[in-house]
Amino acid sequence: xxxxxxxxxxxxxxxxxxxxxxxxxxxxxxxxxxxxxxxxxxxxxxxxxxxxxxxxxxxxxxxxxxxxxxxxxxxxxxxxxxxxxxxxxxxxxxxxxxxxxxxxxxxxxxxxxxxxxxxxxxxxxxxxxxxxxxxxxxxxxxxxxxxxxxxxxxxxxxxxxxxxxxxxxxxxxxxxxxxxxxxxxxxxxxxxxxxxxxxxxxxxxxxxxxxxxxxxxxxxxxxxxxxxxxxxxxxxxxxxxxxxxxxxxxxxxxxxxxxxxxxxxxxxxxxxxxxxxxxxxxxxxxxxxxxxxxxxxxxxxxxxxxxxxxxxxxxxxxxxxxxxxxxxxxxxxxxxxxxxxxxxxxxxxxxxxxxxxxxxxxxxxxxxxxxxxxxxxxx
Length: 379
Ligand SMILES: *Cc1c(COP(=O)(O)O)cnc(C)c1O
Hints:
Blueprint: H1 3-9, H2 50-62, E1 67-71, H3 74-80, E2 90-94, H4 99-107, E3 115-119, H5 124-130, E4 135-141, H6 153-163, E5 166-170, H7 175-178, E6 188-192, E7 206-210, H8 213-226, H9 232-242, H10 245-264, E8 271-273, H11 283-289, E9 296-300, H12 304-313, E10 318-319, E11 329-331, H13 343-348, E12 355-359, H14 365-376
Parallel strand pairs: 2-3, 2-4, 4-5, 5-6, 10-11
Antiparallel strand pairs: 1-7, 6-7, 8-9, 9-12, 11-12
């Protein structure tokens, strides 16, 4: 099936009781059993919830995987990876990952005696060089937040396979519409469904997807034993949103490309980071492993003062953390999303004080450009 057909139908069947075309919100904690030892496959809602199961099947299909697991947030999904960690294990992570991912690995998991190497994964050789006999996992984010560095999933997948390590790819920025890491050698795909999968800035949810039965078994165990599940309403909201994922992503890409080009030629903007620009250092790789360049555009304003003037003068772009919703957002990563990353760490991957990040929404392009142009005239 094509992507949109799957997005609208996968994992969903008309409700057997009424024929309702939409999967109901099964707002229940328990299920009545027919007799002792005989039930309908549902016993307790932490373990089984049909609304959540429909979402898991739906996104697994979109990611070209077999199994999906939903969690209470993207970070809960990241936390569930702990089921694979033991004292002494070594994990290689992109040096420019989501701030919360860095914080969880560095401030929580490190205390258990798990070792981490923070590596510039845009060069696969760096990953290869960091491998030790204890390396059990390679965790990459591509494109990264907010610099939009791109790592070669296929090349790193091969390195992981040779080392006997699993490859986890945070696919939040691309969504399954634009990038399919499982088909390029990833073992697990991670999503903050709070972003593009949810798409309307009204829900916090996370997901892990895989094609491996062995990995799925352990994730199912972790999901149930840790209890880090999302509620049925939140699962339903994301399930409703994936139906329009293709439409939204096409609109995000179209607007973002035009805005990146506009900013690139604007004298007040020092530099624009967008995979769809030929000036992007991994533009060729982006064309190869992505089906579009996404809705995130990052720019360098030269100083925190310039950044502030720009941020304070936009009207349609709302000053807020998060991304991936239909409405355009603007943020200052150094003081917002990446406040927990030490200065010397962030400067290593180019996250300077003048960096501003746009999550380009699906409003009318002319309005967005006018808003940016007006704000830049105040800088
Ligand atoms: C937001 C985000 C996360 C964390 O997800 P939450 O739903 O906020 O817990 C992880 N990775 C990336 C790339 C994100 O943007």
